[in-house]
Amino acid sequence: GDHIYRMDYGPMIAFHQQRGADVTLGAVVVPIEEGHRFGILETDAEGRVHSFEEKPKEPRGTLGSMGIYVFSRDTLTRVLVEDARAGETGGTPSQHDFGRNIIPAMLARNERVYAYPFSGYWQDVGTVQSYWEAHMELLTDKPAFDLYDPSWVIHTRSEERPPAHVRSGAQVVSSLISHGCIIKGTVERSVLSPGVIVEENAVVRDSILLFDTIIGAGSVV
């Protein structure tokens, strides 16, 4: 996916069940100037969705879909089968997309579509700028998304590699250095994925380096 969030699904599932919803969408308030990147919802006071437009050129609101949905199994099976058959009887073929096809079709049939308001951490990283900003925010002293919070355990990890090694004379400031990295130069305000090598006299600033990148001696990034 292209978003990062931290959510306990329990309250959203309870919201869905309490309202007898056919589908519940996680929803957050987004800046109006960013609305064209999201599915934009309009709801009533109870949270029932009355309109949904995927990535509108001119957003009419600021409540955006998170792309997180709660369905009952039977409802999900039914709408997927209906979507798969769209166009078989002369209708418009579907792109098989929840935001563009399935949710709008449910609204057109007046099904019970609700929006669950979410106020926790959520970041869309679907652009290079937002991807970079989300990483840089991790480097602050008190990031909103705290990787070191013991109550939110990281359950997955990439292949095992040796610990990161910062060589004599190297300098690392305000950075996240993954396992398997070897630092011989200078790294400032950057996030290094596993296996990155920064050679002697190289300087890396305000950067995100992906797996096994090698920054040659004397380079500046």
Content-based structural category: alpha/beta
CATH topology category name of the largest domain? Spore Coat Polysaccharide Biosynthesis Protein SpsA, Chain A
Largest sheet: 5 strands, mixed
Order of helices and strands: EHEEEEHHEEHEEEEEEEEEE
Give the DSSP E fraction (strand runs of 2 or more residues): 25-35%
The stretches of 5 or more residues where confidence is low (pLDDT under 50) are none
Known CATH architecture of the largest domain: Alpha-Beta Complex
* Number of separate domains: 2
What is the H level of CATH, i.e. the homologous superfamily of the largest domain?
Answer: Spore Coat Polysaccharide Biosynthesis Protein SpsA, Chain A
Helix content: 10-25%
Rg measurement, Å: 22 Å
CATH class of the largest domain: Alpha Beta
Described by the principal axes of the CA atoms, the overall outline is elongated
Architecture blueprint of SSEs:
Layout: E1 3-5, H1 9-18, E2 23-29, E3 39-43, E4 49-54, E5 63-71, H2 73-85, H3 98-108, E6 113-117, E7 122-124, H4 128-137, E8 165-166, E9 171-173, E10 176-177, E11 182-183, E12 186-188, E13 191-192, E14 197-198, E15 203-205, E16 208-209, E17 214-215
Parallel strand pairs: 2-6, 8-11, 9-12, 10-13, 11-14, 12-15, 13-16, 14-17
Antiparallel strand pairs: 1-7, 2-5, 3-4, 3-5
Relevant terms:
elongated, 4-stranded parallel beta sheet, 28% strand, alpha/beta, 221 residues, Spore Coat Polysaccharide Biosynthesis Protein SpsA, Chain A, 2 domains
